Amino acid sequence: MAKDVTCEVNSCKFWGPQNRCNASSIHVAGHQNQPRQNREVDCKTFQPKI
Ligand code: SF4
């Protein structure tokens, strides 16, 4: 599990209670070089819940 990662993307299959990310590792990339707002950050580990 990625340590101490909290995330509000509850549509992701790695998302758990208390906003915990249960993925073993995550890859987060910004859409821009210097993201300034949450919506400009994109977790590449995201997978939709089935
Ligand atoms: S994999 Fe990314 S989007 Fe999914 S819960 Fe973890 S941090 Fe959030």
Automatic annotation (TrEMBL):
| Any Pfam family matching the protein | DUF1540
Q: Where is the DUF1540 domain?
A: 5-46
State the superkingdom.
Bacteria
InterPro entries per record: DUF1540 (IPR011437)
Q: What is this protein called?
A: DUF1540 domain-containing protein
What species does this protein belong to?
Paenibacillus sambharensis
Q: What is the lineage of its organism?
A: Bacteria, Bacillati, Bacillota, Bacilli, Bacillales
